Every structure is written in C-alpha cells, then in structure tokens.
Amino acid sequence: MASVRSVSKSGSSRTQSASTGKNPKPLKVADLAADSLSVDQIIQGDCLAAMARLPAASVDLIFADPPYNLQLTGELTRPDQSRVDGVTDHWDQFASFEAYDKFTRAWLNEARRILKPDGAIWVIGSYHNIFRVGSALQDLGFWILNDVIWHKTNPMPNFRGRRLTNAHETLIWATRSAEAKSYTFNYESLKAANEDVQLRSDWTFPICAGAERVKDDSGSKAHPTQKPEALLHRILIATTKAGDVVLDPFFGTGTTGVVAKRLGRHFIGIERESDYVAVARARIADVVPLDEELVAPPQTKRDAPRVPFATVVERRMLEPGAILCDPSRRHRAKVRADGTIVSAEATGSIHRIGAIVQGLPACNGWTFWHFEAGGGRLAPIDLLRQKIRAEGV
Ligand SMILES: C[S@@+](CC[C@H](N)C(=O)[O-])C[C@H]1O[C@@H](n2cnc3c(N)ncnc32)[C@H](O)[C@@H]1O
Q1: Beta carbon of 171 within 6 Å of any ligand 1 atom
Q2: pLDDT by residue (tens digit) across 42-62?
Q3: Whole-prediction pTM value?
C-alpha cells in the first residue's frame, strides 16, 4: 500500500496508509491537499502547479532531470543516412534562453520551499543548460557542494564530425542554503565500499541500454532520455537514508522511483506526459524492495556507543594482570583491576599510557594495545570493544 504522510501547518507529520493498492493510480494536481504529502505516488501534471501544492519543508532530497533545452535544429543522420534518435520532443523546447531561465527559476524556487532545511538537490544537465541551472541555483540561495561529471562509457558519436564527442553530463549537488550543515552524506560507507578510498566527483557509467531501456510496442525507446538506474543508485546511497522522501519533478520513466523503492526510500514523482507516467507506473510496480537490514545505514564511528576500557575488565574479557603490548611487542603494560593500565613509566588510561610509551602527544589506545589471542597471535583490544558493542553496551 502506498503511504500518505500528512504534514500539518505547524510542520509535524504523520504517516497513514492509502487504500490505493500496490500500483496506485497517478494523482492529479487537483487531488493534492495543500497540507499533505502523498508518498510513493506519481502526480500527473505540470510540475510547477504540482509543486505549488506540496507542503513546505517536507522532502529530504530532490533529484531533477529537467528539460535540457537542446535547441536541435534539422534532422540528424548517421553516415549511412539512418536517422538519429535525438531529443526533439515538445517538452524540451523553449522559445528562448529567457523563457528557459524563467521556467528554471520558477521550479527551483518551489524546490527550495519544499526541501527540509537540511535537504539537498541534485540537478543533472548538459552544456546546453547546466550553466544556466548553476547560476539560478546560486542566485536563489542554494549552496553548491559539488559538481559531478558523469563520464559515459558509450556516448553517442558526433555524427557531423564538427565537435568533440559529447561524452559526459554534469550533475550539481547543492544544499538548500549555506547554513545547512546536517545534510545527508554517507561519507564513511561510500569510502568503505570504494576500496577505502574517498569517492571522487567523476563517475563512470554507461548510458541506459539493453534490458533496462524501456521500449514501446514498436520496439523504439519509450523515452529519449531514460537515465541509468546505477546513477540514481549511487546518488540515493550517497545522499539519503532509508525512509527519506525523494522528489523528482521530471519523473519521465520513473527511474528515481524504481531505485528509491528498491532502496527503501519514499518517492514522489511528477510527470506531465501520460505515456511516460504509464511506463513509470509499470516499472515501479515490478520492483521488490530490499530487506530493511540491507539498506539501513551502517553505524558510523561517530554514532557508535562509547565503551570505557573498564568494561572489558568488568566483563572479564581481560583479567587484571593481563599483559598488553604494541604490535611489534616493543612496549608493554599491565591491566589493572580498575581499568587503568600500568607501564614501566606510569599508570593511566589505555590512551595516555599508549602516548607516553611512544613519546607522542596522543594515541588511540584501542588500536595501539594488543593482547595475546592464543597460538602466539596478537589481537587489538579494539576487538573486545567491538564484541561489547555487538552485544549492546
Ligand atoms: C529529461 S526527462 C527525465 C527522464 C527521467 N529522468 C528518466 O529517467 O526517465 C524530463 C521529463 O520531464 C517532463 N517534463 C517536462 N516539463 C515538465 C513540466 N513542466 N512538468 C512536468 N513534467 C515535465 C518530460 O515529459 C520528460 O519526461
């Protein structure tokens, strides 16, 4: 069942179930109550009108893939004279840059109103529009955190041979304002999942193709700019938590909804064209959400409960009198009954004695000190702390 979160005028919210079944019918803009937020729903209509009906400070993240205003003129053909499937749709056409800027600023204004104070926005675009979007974001008070290059492994060639192959798109990630400091960025898990190296701002993915690309009855692409699910997966894993609400005002085939549902996030999609809404509904209905435990964020070092070394002694994981040493067995200290340790030089905490024996100003005693783990093997005392945490401190 789709859930509907009501947000009262004072800003508090509650969640209730809508009796709309597994594949709820799209909502019309006129169906939207001004003080409630229907999540896991597609709103069919103009995004400006629909966003104006969404409550202020109600969504955690916006992902927007707006019209690019590609300004394509004339038919584009390959050397074999076959026609190139460019984006020539009416929804991508604007009379002028001024008209595009006016539209961009209008939806970004609404986006800013709808975002929670620590919410954030991603906007994807190409050289045709992304610089205009970037300046609008800054003018409206958003705070740009990064721009990300999506490097395409399989870009469309430049058929006329008059320019470089256009092999990337740009994403801008911005908070609602410069003051927003608690925006979601799952730094530690991103690093852990990236060979323990910080994730960089250049991302490589193929464009959406193969089985993932939705086709219509005649075998043609159902949508000219369907985005790869991998791209949305990374964005949602990086900058949302399970249970967050993600709004996509240019829903297209519903890629954001597909990935959000799979990853245990809520989505709201707005799309004007009924054919695309139908594709998005069908795609989302097929998605099976992952188990909660697979999408819950891992505990960060900062969240982990504090464990005093005394707990290790109280629980008799190490007996008073046990000898601790560093990995090279150069320094030694003895565990005391009160949870302090004593070396040849002094008595004190695992951290202080670790620092003193090394002649350093500070030391993390949990990783410096080791105990005999049997068979001549040493293990860091941090292992004992982890056991205590796993049992629940
Ligand atoms: C670049 S496409 C988004 C594609 C989408 N990310 C996907 O993966 O399928 C932009 C979409 O915005 C829709 N659109 C354009 N202007 C709109 C408006 N004013 N209100 C609602 N939807 C609009 C278009 O119909 C189009 O499907």
Answers
A1: no
A2: 999 999 999 999 999 999 999
A3: 0.78
